[in-house]
Task: structure prediction
Amino acid sequence: MTIKSYRGLIPTDSQEHIRLKTLDGSKGYRIRKFQVLDRYPVTGAPEAVVKIYSIKQAAVGHEINFSDPSLLAAAFLSHGSTNATYEKEEIIFIDKVFNQDIYITSVDTTDSVSMNYYLELEVVDLRDNENEYITLRDIKATLPQHG
Result:
């Protein structure tokens, strides 16, 4: 099993593009680990939402909607301004294979703190029919949702 790891610091209210797409789409990826940590963990009181999508987002926000087929992972991090106050971290990711680029968004609703992320992706070899199915599914996710 091959694992690729990515890490970075993403400013609040922004989106980062991670290039994964191959010319023939023969490689797929599955999230194995996703972690977040605010830039200044000892000071401030962030309430941040960091999400991973399979398509570029028109706007970055703090809403988490698991009905959105393009949402691959979501993390929420909150802690008070001192070590005596609460700390909470929730991370959920979907066990889904994708073969297109991904986009990480970050929003801090209180302190405008940049967030560090660490992401591990398992590399999956795809057969032609799997490649076509995943590519079509990801294209469908970019279409407007009706419902």
The two ends are 39 Å apart (CA to CA).
